[in-house]
Amino acid sequence: MFTSFEPKNTLLLGPGPSPVSESVLASLSKPTIGHLDSSFFVMMDEIKMMLRLLFSTTNDITFPVSGPGSAGMDTCVVNLVEPGDEVIVCINGAFGQRIAESVAKVGGIVTEVHSEWGAPTQPEQLEQALLKTPNCKIVSFVHAETSTGVRNDAKTLCEIAHRFGALTLVDAVTSLGGIPVCVDEWGIDAVFSGSQKCLSCPPGLSPVSFSQRAVNKANSRTSPIPSWFMDVTKVASYWTGQARAYHHTAPVNALYGLHQSLVDYHSEGKELAFTRHAAVSTERKRVINTAF
């Protein structure tokens, strides 16, 4: 006879998932409603507004992909990369390598710029790679590399990419909510994150945001977007505008959780959240240094 699963009350200290607050857990158990219910649309709009504040952007195409951070990565890649596009991927950990693999799978021509794991990508490395790749369409990198904890200088790397006429595609899975992510100020064209890290929400949703430059590239493709589910030109009609068009059955209760997580986050305030994450990081380093 099967019985209900009862997980242990475990303190999660890995890079993710992180502990989920009682308010978020409670929101997950609220009654499920239809994903085309008018009240659900109101909540969706609030999620979009709160994500824009979190990403520091005015991008209209800002919403959570139904899937984990890797689904957000693939969403950015399949919409922006066409077969034959030259793409530079800066790699200093496992997840930079994953972006390179995703780009290659859709026919992009990848130039890998490697740095030692645990060391940030140096601006001159990217500049040299762009000088050798004059037709580069996109530069991609991980803002905070989950596998090592190293932070790349997103502002500088984006400035260099734009100087050479390339779009930018950024992994902010670990950084969003824990440190500043300034999409508009830094010129990030496509960015993806995950619900299970600094937002203290269960895994399964991937916030993304696309600049108008990125939207223009997706709309001007000469080849079809190689995914129905991740085609932003289709799913955007469910998340934006007055006349909502059905795209897929959204994970209703998971979105309740993300909404509550964002409410809690903005109630605390960005600066206090950044300070809290910095304090925990400092204490973790102290404990590790003491132990070893």
Overview of the molecule:
The chain is an alpha/beta fold. The chain contains 11 helices and 7 strands. The protein has helices at 22-28, 38-55, 69-80, 94-105, 123-132, 154-163, 183-186, 212-219, 232-239, 252-268, 270-291, and strands at 61-66, 86-91, 109-114, 136-142, 167-171, 190-192, 205-210. Strands 1-7-6-5-4-2-3 form a 7-stranded mixed β-sheet, sandwiched between helices. Helix 2 (38-55) packs across helix 10 and helix 5 packs parallel to helix 6. It is globular, with a radius of gyration of 19 Å.
Helix-and-strand structural type? alpha/beta
Identify the strand order in the major beta sheet: 1-7-6-5-4-2-3
Ranges with pLDDT <50 over ≥5 residues? none
Strand content: 5-15%
Oligomer: single chain
The N- and C-terminal alpha carbons lie at a distance of: 47 Å
Mean pLDDT across every amino acid position = 94
Q: Strand tally, please?
A: 7
Question: For the report, how would you describe the main beta sheet?
Answer: 7 strands, mixed
Number of helices: 11
Overall, the morphology is globular
- Which bin fits the share of residues in helices? 40-55%
Q: SSE order in H/E notation?
A: HHEHEHEHEHEHEEHHHH
Computed Rg: 19 Å
Short description:
The chain is of the alpha/beta class. Helix content is 44%, strand content 13%.
Tag the structure with descriptive keywords:
292 residues; alpha/beta; seven-stranded mixed beta sheet; 44% helix
Q: How are the SSEs ordered, and which strands pair?
A:
Blueprint: H1 22-28, H2 38-55, E1 61-66, H3 69-80, E2 86-91, H4 94-105, E3 109-114, H5 123-132, E4 136-142, H6 154-163, E5 167-171, H7 183-186, E6 190-192, E7 205-210, H8 212-219, H9 232-239, H10 252-268, H11 270-291
Parallel strand pairs: 2-3, 2-4, 4-5, 5-6
Antiparallel strand pairs: 1-7, 6-7
